[in-house]
Structure formats: structure tokens, C-alpha cells
Amino acid sequence: MLVVFALILLALVLFATEWFPIDVTAILVMVLLMVLEPWTQISAREGISGFANPATITVLAMLILSTGINRTGLVQLIGRKMAAFAGTDRRKQLAATVGVTGPVSGFINNTPVVAILVPVIADLAHEGNTSPSKLLMPLSFASMLGGTLTLIGTSTNILASDIAAQLGAESPGIGLHAFGMFEFTKLGIIVFAVGSLYLMTIGVRLLPERIPADEDLVEEYALQEYLADVVVPANSPLIGQTVGKALGDDERDIDVLQLIRYGEQFDEPLARKEIHENDTLRLRTNRETLEDIIDAEGLTLSGGPRTEDDLHPEDEEPVLVEVVIPSGSFLVGETLASSSFRQRYDTNVLAFRTRGDVVRDRFEDIRIRVGDTILVQAPPDSLTRLVKNEDFIVAHEFDKVTYRTEKIPFAVGIIAGVVALPALNVLPIVVSALAGVVAMIFTGVLKPTELYSSVEWNVIFLLAGVIPLGIALQQTGAAALLGGAVAATGTFLPPIVVLWVFYLVTGLLTSVISNNASVVLMIPVAANAAQSIGANAFAFVLAVTFAASTAFMTPVGYQTNLFVYGPGGYKFSDFLRVGAPLQLLLSVVSVLGIAFFWGVRV
After folding, report:
1. Rg of the chain's alpha carbons, rounded to an integer?
2. Do residues 299 and 226 both lie within one domain?
3. Which DSSP state fits 250?
4. Coil, strand or helix: which one is 376?
5. If you write DSSP's letter for every residue of 172-206 in order, what string do you get?
6. Is 241 within the bounds of a domain?
7. Residues whose CB falls within 8 Å of the CB of residue 329, separated by 6 or more in sequence, listed in order
8. What CATH number does residue 301 fall under?
9. Were both Cys, which of 13, 78, 267, 518 would link to 510 (CB 3.0–4.6 Å)?
């Protein structure tokens, strides 16, 4: 037990500090469990059992199915209709955001739903003269609330269902079983309704307007002091040199954004363009470096762009956009220098936002994390490539992206079948989901080559890595020990209060580590505690599941929070201010709902 507790402590520290990516931490824990088999009682077969676990395979299939829906453009179509309905009315904008995101997230994995809707909602806010800060956090929160509606709403629900089934098989008298497709939907509807009401009333008042409604990116990132126009006079040594040779030295930290010659702007890759007399070079650099280069190269300062519109003509697509880094992106763990991001996409990076802090220079060697936002300037064709690449979330919609809209009826029919067959007890969810994947290939919703890129492999490795930790908790008696310790509070606390405590502890734990890791650690303990005090184990498992699916208090508690962190301009404290009251409110609502529908006592 001590060895298992030590590994849990190690996992918690690594998850919370993000010294390694969370999937790497999970695999490390899995390896240590197998290496320390004499103490952990985890054999090699049990250690790798997470890869063949029905929950892992189901989540893998659901991620592919979600990509199929994305390829048809169905969610974007719904989002655009939502924008047309909302117009410039702020209440309608918020109602549409919450009202569309929640139900859709009940049937499609909520992480890709938010990734798809971030640019839709950002543009809706921009066109409706509303601060994106007022809509993007509700987008993330609504997706979490919607994830509680069905078994397939989140990977957390699927994993919790599988753990409950395993515990029920090991101890038939405990009364645990796999969740049905709509088993907790009645509670999910109540939670979604209460959460939506909070967001529409109290939450919207607590939300700050971090980004101005007009959303000028140059002003938002305070870039005016880092952008400058310099003119090349007749005596400058730069004349005749290419831009790359003259100013491409990485040690100087200079980006040439545009070359202006006789009123014509050149934005395309400029490295090979020769510099002529009287050219104006638009630079991104700090004041100190600017002064040095003006002195060294004999340049003349002539002001600089003050707004986003100065960087591109009004009749063209924007060349300046925010790019959010999702989980699974090749950039995670890399730096701008090591990833060759600029060279791959012919982009200039103007600013870098990480965990709420904006860096405007010397960002080449910053290690990139999930949720970081990069402000890039690039020609339209490069931006289109970024939009099409699932390694990025571009916070602006582009009309050039094409979808397989003719496949929408097939995609909707397949998802309906995936949901209906398990609900009617015709097929297990894992079989239904895999059958849906095959159906999407046969109907052309997805191409065979898209299968592997559709999967967020870090999520799969996370699941596979933490599942053996739950087995070790059970087999060493560690879960029973912790459950017994919590059960001791049952001598002076009623069972419903013990249930509430489990909800709060899980919610706090999920705020600092992965939600999937939370259910793996907490469900066995909750089930044992319920057994010890003669309470309904299913009620305790549900409380843990709902708490792990609603991590509102920190931006790192849930992937969707990280997706909106940068584009919303939020600070860490904003999530605590808006999310903590919601978490507390839903802890009471969920526990009372569980007690009403399923009862707390056996």
C-alpha cells in the first residue's frame, strides 16, 4: 500500500506541475507499477491492460466519430445559424452559445466541439460588438455541463462506467454496473439547466471584459511598442541584400512582417526578396534592438502600424490571427525554434500568450504547452493550411475551408445508431462505437487515411496509463484503507454529507490533475467508503463522475478551459471567480439529485 500511495503522490505532483506531458506521466506510472510488481501486485499483463480496456477503445472510437461529424461541417453550420439568430443582442448570443454547445456535447465528445466553436463564437462576439471574454468561458462551461447528459458526452463518463462495471464484477453484492446510455440523463438535464441559468444571470456579471468588444489584436496584445516602420535610405548597407540575409539573424529577434515599395505591400515569404532604396520595412522587435539596427544599418524610423487594419487591406482576409495549441499538437513540448513552425507555415510570430501572460519578444525558446496562444501573421494560403491542420485551433473562421456537407445525413444517422443500439441493449457501447467508425468509412464521411489523425493519442495513452493505477489501488487494499478512513466520518456525519464531501474532494482534485485520473483514483475509494457505511455505492460513483466532469475552477482542470484561455484573454483568477460558485452550486444540486433519484442508503 505504501508503494502504491507513493506512486499516487508522484503522479499527483507530475500531473499538477506538468513537468512532463500528462500522457507521459501516465505511462511512467504504468511502467513503475509493473517494475515494482512484488509490492504493487501489477503483472505485465495487468499493467498493459489499459490498452485493451473497453473504455480506452470506446473513447478512441468516439474521437474518430467526432472527427467524422467535424468533416461534414455540421457543428459549424449549427454555429452559423446560432450566430444569425443571436445577432448583436448579448443575451441572445450567450443563450445561443450555451443552448447549442450543451446538447451537442451530449452526443459528440465535448473537447472537439469546443475546438470547432471557438472561432465561431469569437467571430460572433466580434461581429456582435461583444467582448469575446463574455462568451468563451460560458462556451467551455456549457460543453462540460452538456457532457453530463449521456454516457458518451465525455471520456470521463465512459471510463467511470467501465471502472464501475469492473468493481461490480469483483464484488457482486456492491450493486455496481456499467452505466446505460441515458442512465443519468435526468440528473444531467437538471445540472445543465441550473448551470445554464447561473451562466445567464450571475456568471455573466462575474465575467470580466478582458478583451475590448472591437477586438483589435494589435491593441489587445499591446504591440504598438513592438511594431515599427523603417525606411531604407540611399546610403544603407542593406541595399542589394535579401531580407533573409540582412535581417534573418535569430539572435537579433527581428521579424520582417511586410515590405512596402511605392505603396504596394508584400506579405509573402520575404526572405529571398531583395531590398531596394526607399523600401519601407515593417518590423516586429523591441525598442532596444530597433535602435541598434537603425544605428548599424543607417535606417530611418517612420512610425509604424497602430491597429490590426494597418497590417492588411480592408478587402482582404485577415493576415493576423490567434492560434491555440490543443492537446495532441506536434508543438506541445517544443519551442518555436525547435519545431520550425515559422518555416513550415511561412508565418511571423508577433506575440505569445502562455497561462495568461503575454510575451512580445524573445519567445523563440519558450516551451509550448497545451492551451498556449500564438499571435501569427501569415498570407491567406498559409492561414488556410493552419485551419485545416488539427494541430491548431485558429480563432477565426475562414470561408475557404470546405466541408463534406453532402455527408451530413449519413453522419447524423450513424451517430444516432451508435447511441440507440447500446440504449436498447442491442450492442455494448464499445461494439456500437467501432461499428460506427466502419460505417463512416464505408459511407465516405471519413477517409481511411483520416482515422489515425482523428485520434488524440495523448488521451488514449493517458487512459491506458492510469487504469492500472486503479487496479493497484484495489488489489493492494489501498482503496479499502482510504475508503475505511473516510467511512469513519460516517459515525458523526449522515451519508448524504459524506457523499457531498466526495463530490467536493473530486472537484478539487480534478482542478489540478486530469479528470480521467481523478475518477480512477476516487471511484474505488468512494465505492469502498459506501460499502463501509452501508450506503448506495452507485450513488457515490455517480457523485465522483459528475464532479470529475465539471472542473470549472482552474483553466488547467479541463482541456476545454485551456482552449478558451488565450482567445478570451482570461487570467487564472477569472476561472476561480466564475467557476467556484458554480462548482459549489452544482455540488449541492448534484448530491440532492442523486439522493432523490437513486437514494443514498442501500
Report:
1. 26
2. yes
3. G
4. strand
5. GGG---PPPTTTTHHHHHHHHHHHHHHIIIIIHHH
6. yes
7. 370, 391, 392
8. 3.30.70.1450
9. 518
Do 223 and 302 have their domain in common? yes
Domain boundary among 306, 337, 362: 306
207/578 Cα distance (integer angstroms)? 7
Domain boundary among 394, 419, 447: 394
pLDDT digit string, tens, across residues 328-346: 788 888 888 788 887 788 7
Report the distance separating Cα 228 and Cα 247, nearest Å. 14
Residue 355 within any structural domain of the chain: yes
Residue type, 26: A
Strands of 393-394's sheet in order across: 357-359, 348-354, 373-377, 320-324, 393-394
Same domain assignment for residues 227 and 284: yes
Q: All 3 cell numbers of residue 343?
A: 518555416
* C-alpha distance from residue 162 to each of 55, 287, 506, 514, 554 (Å): 6, 58, 18, 17, 27
Whole-Å CA distances, 193 to 136, 149, 239, 551, 589: 19, 11, 66, 17, 11
Would you list the DSSP string of 271-289? TTPBP-TT-EEEEE--HHH
Q: How many domains does the chain have?
A: 2
pTM: 0.85
Helix, strand, or coil (residue 568): coil
What does the chain come to in residues? 602
Does 339 lie in the same domain as 294? no
Asked if 300 and 222 sit in the same domain, the reply is yes
CB-CB contact of 363 with 349 (8 Å): yes
The answer to whether residue 426 is domain-embedded is: no
What is the tens place of the pLDDT at every residue in 522-580? 898 888 888 888 889 999 999 999 999 888 988 877 888 888 888 888 888 899 899 99
Residues 6 or more apart in contact with residue 411 via CB below 8 angstroms: 68, 69, 72, 74, 440, 445
CB 526 within 8 A of CB 483: yes
Question: What is the identity of the amino acid at 45?
Answer: R
Residues 328 and 373 placed together within one structural domain of the fold:
yes
Which residue range forms the structural domain that includes residue 226? 217-306
User: What's 407's DSSP letter?
Assistant: G
